[in-house]
Input
Amino acid sequence: MKVAVIRHGVGREAKRVLTYLQKSIYKDIQNIDDYEFEFFYLFRQINNENSIRNKEVNLSSSFSALPFEKVINVKLPKNFYIDFSAHFTKDIHKDNFQAYRHLLNQTFMFRKFSEEIDIKKFSSFIVLRDDILFRNYGNLNKLIKDSQKGYVTSIWDWEGGVHERFYMCPTYIFEKLIYKY
Output
């Protein structure tokens, strides 16, 4: 069985996090013999963007990939954004719906991935944002085995968005997730 490992994001923390990933979960993945793994990095360049929620200004990408990752650069189409305020009465994050736009961007990245890569050749997917750190993930081989049948993610801070930052799932669920927003 073949498993796609997809790291995705805008590279804000990639240089800092990449070494950690390489020495933790990536190393452990590469030591598993029960599956064949293919690594990808979905990267979207940002320049001088602001994060309302985090009160950060002039954020720009810092590209950093590993030699074994196939890089897919994603550019958003012009006029891509939806006017969320026209559809929702409450901005739960109080960030002028910026968090919603980020989730839309993320989904678009996965759609572009599915246009370039035949996702049917994979039995499952390990998906992680490029700024995530892992403290402990238990028996990785068992988690990957479980992800052949269903959705696997952390229960920690589910409502805080961890399920958007890291999950594992079989192909039929990944197909649905790339069109969720």
The chain has a mean pLDDT of 82. The first strand starts at residue 2 and ends at 9.
